[in-house]
Amino acid sequence: MNDHMTWRETVLYRGGAVLLALALTSFIIWISSPETPPWEVLGLIFRGAFSTPSQGGISWSKVADVLVAWIPMLLAAAGLLITFAAGLWNIGVEGQIVMGAVFTTWVLRALQGSGYPPALILTLGIVAGAVGGALWALLVGLLRTYGGVNEIFGGLGMNFVATTIVLWLIFGPWKRPGIGSMSGTEPFPPELHLPTLGNTRLSPVALAIGLGGMAVAYLLLKGTYFGLRLKAVGNNPRAARLMGMQPGRYMLLAFGLGGALVGLAGAVQVTAVYHRLIPAISSGYGWLGLLVCMLVNYDPTWAPLVSLFFAAINIGSIQLPIVLSLDSSLAGVIQGALVFSFLFTEGLRRTVMRRRARAAAS
Amino acid sequence: MSWDLILTGLAGVVAMATPVVFATLGETLTERAGVINLSVNGTILLSAMGGFVAALTTGSLWLGFLVGMLIGGAVAFLVAFTSLTLKQSQVAVGFVLALFTRDLSYYLGNPFVGKQGPRVPVMPIPGLSKIPVLGELLFDHDPLTYLSIVLIFVTWFWVYKTRPGLILQGLGERPAAAYARGANVRLQRFIYTVLGGMLVGLAGPTYSLSVKAGWKGTISGLDGIGWIALALTIFGAWNPLRGAAGAYMFALLQWLSLVVQPYLPGVPTQVLQVAPFPLMILTLLLVNIGNTEWMKRTLAGLPPDARHFISRILRALQVTPPAGLGRAFEEE
Amino acid sequence: MQVELRDIHKFFGPVHANRGITLTIPAGTIQGLLGENGAGKSTLMKILSGFIRPDRGEIRLDGRPVSFRSPADALRQGIGMLHQDPLDFPPMRVLDNFVAGSPGGLLPDKEDARQALLSISQQFGFSLDPDAYVDTLTVGERQQLEIVRLLWLGARVLIFDEPTTGISAQQREKLFAALRRLADEGRTIIFVTHKLEEVQALCHRVAVLRSGELVGEAQAPYDLDRLVEMMFGKVITVGRAEPVPLGEPVLELRDLAVEDHRLHIRGVTLDIRAGEVIGLAGMEGSGQRRLLRAAAGLIRPTGGTVRFLGQDMTGRPYLDFHKAGATYIPADRMTEGLFPDLTIAEHVALAREQTGFLLNAEQMRAWAQEAIENFSIRGRPETPARALSGGNQQRLLLALMRPDLRLIFMEHPTRGLDLESALWIWRKLKDRCRKGTAIFFMSSDLEELLNYSDRVLVFFGGRVSRPLPAEELDVERLGQLIGGYGFDRVANDAITEPQTEGKAA
Q1: What ipTM did this prediction achieve?
Q2: Exposure on the CB side of residue B192, measured as CA atoms within 13 A
Q3: Which CATH number belongs to the domain containing residue A86 in this structure?
Q4: Residue B162: closest C-alpha in chain C
Q5: Which of A99, B2, B162, C372 shows its CA 20 to 30 Å from the CA of A244?
């Protein structure tokens, strides 16, 4: 099948996907609050990503919030692009974020008050986050390559286990002095926070980690022998084996590398955003990363931009309960509708192309 | 713990397993036909919310269940259309819909969180419920539990004993052969996917109108059940009886974790409730390990007696999925 | 039932698979349909059995024009087709297979079906156990099940697509007897094959297809030379390849044994020398593929030793063989040989020694261009492998082999290829032999085995022959050995346990 699209097809099908998603979400908004016009709701989300509606004008702290949400999504998507290249559905991504956060918290807790320079402790903590994510992903990878357990189910199971470990830590060994609570572990002292820009929540270091992670994934997949082999293994592991590659090893490498990038997302959430371990540390960024990958058709090129867009929707929808008393989970509805519409129109396009090819032949 | 308490607990296990049984049976039918519907988790949430709201606003329990099943069928239809007609990846479509329907249920259900809704009454079966032990265990429930038990056997009978059931087995195994025997493969896959989706959609209201009555949004405790049902489908080797047994085992474990809770102070409840998940992985490991490359190599290196002994055990444990599962089928 | 095909046309994309075929088959005859791979036989028969619809043309049964909406519809009108790989459900029982798809109410009457199954089987001397699982049957038995099933459902025209591939000689005899009987009863039999001897032994009349066209018809007794000419256009005598001087042993197998849960092959001892070509012959599923894979380290042999280039490699993985200079070319190019979505340039880059960490797009293009020219691949560097034709896929696979290979394992080197591509492929392979590469291959094409091998191992009924020099064999003799005639005299004496015939692929 020829995957090349003319610009007219691009406009038709990609534009169609956006329209379909808009129609779907408008309909859903109409069901939930028939008196509010859907465009008002969507407009609020859009404006909410860049400004505080009560004040108007561009709010830099809002823009910073979008970037703060962008960072873990970038890292999750970067890690997932690597596992997708190897043909793997890394649904364990949520657990990998969580375990990244756990490892980071562990190192910070162990070293705080040790007298080491904070920069060193933070660096070690972030590296530990990558290690945590990698190890958790490798576990799924080992189950897949040596145990024959499909990575979708292995990953799902490990997600639940990771969440449980966090709960156990928060209510058990790492509980706050006095009583453990859902609010998480005792916050770290300010010197163990990644420094933020002005009075926003955005940490330039975290942003650099996020962009760096995506850059690594991009270069690896687009320009290296390693990336090419990963693609080969993902496309046909049996052929890869006969050509002298070791598919199992490449899958494990993909899990390890991808998991490390994903684990960094957890590390960033701990060091730059929450400054402690909380039960919902992953905030669903792993799932969003999966959606991003699907929406860009598993190609890194547009992943950063789409992630940014998703982050904007997330931040913008925070206004919903405040202004319109609608639930902010509308963000997820919009994102899901977009990806579904994309899969749907892409399927339509391919069906039309198949039909056309058949008609042209006879 | 007294015997009575244990019995009450076990009866509770049977009730708790009811929605999981529905979902597992539904997914088993769908996958038997060669389609993976990965949206189960969100479908359960959305149908739980939708069923609850329908029953709450109209006061009709029937309508609640009907709405739940319609939602399940509709989501499954989207999966079927996008994957069978438009040839997109079943995993991708199913996964997106799993997330979409989950958030949709939270969004649309938000105004109804915490409201007091109707609840399916318990209806002991006269006579049977008086049988000692068995009566309380099986015949002192609400009608849904009875329905689920009946459905287990109906599904099993359908798959293995009826004429359409034989074709259904072939549909997932070798669609070309089913087609040669007169089956309209795509249509039947559609039908079983939607039918399976409707059963999954029955699981939702079973929670919100019976087992965990009410709608509590993100803290309803239903997120994750669908994934379990998917795993149980594999665990059950696509056999309705085995799948249902898995569902009961899962509910039993959850109950056991609550029972031992008081003896382990300091361990949060959530920790014990998660016990079935590692167990699920372990089970999948056991049934799959015989398929792996390294196991075959290791076996070939063993002395013949040990080799034959171990491979017989592995073959007995091993679960092979329907050969055509997840694959597209072109009639021409 | 008389079958008439009138001006049947069928296109697959740009391929004109059937070009106006007109053929009349009287009731009660066994009609042979001859042709090379890709001549359009299968397409025509799929049209006649309702699997695909013709783009143009008409089918008449007993003079009445008909059209089929599906295979089941064709069967209702009396036409049943038996596929080369029987279209059944392996994990289900024989009786369930028999019943599945039969008309009737919700609950099948299994007792009735069992009686029917047994009585029809008995008429033809088949012994089918209704309660056995189909995946434990041989291909021959699965065919028998399909025949019985189609007859039960009222087929009056039976189409057999290459039915003798993969079945034992006894089963072939049984099949032929059944076909003669069916024809005597007035049923119409269409027998698709590319084997002349079968046409001669069985068919009342024969039609020959070439490149989608009906090029001629004949009635028994046949002039074989004329049939060959019709099949191939002109008689091509490929002739034996020039002998290549042999060097040191490359691969040494000592007492090698392989097994799966039904097949035990023991005691294979063989030296393959540099430049030598060894062919493995036998019915499909007789253990050739397993032996070949064990010799290459892809599966672990259960006994014996393997030495490659003087090194003991027993039990070592394929990767070690590959590193030491061996490669394995599978029969199924798209599922095991190539990466469907990767381009020619990416394939070529993967196959070469890595030159650093980063890819160089310019360099990749140049390499790909070179491979395309040297191996006459019809494609461009950015063409994905799935867009190539079978012959071009095989050429690409050859292009990917490293220049310094010492040993090539191959399954069916030319399966599904046209004659020209096949000749070209073997020319390339023989060039390698002259440089000292050994080739160890399996094939079901007797001519190929005889023309290119130095020695041949024949597999039959779970046993292996000793290596037989190819010049001592001819097509007839090799065919007999594969069918088991005279096998005992060439059999490897180390066999201790004769085993049953292998499971179908």
Answers
A1: 0.90
A2: 29
A3: 1.10.3470
A4: C107
A5: C372
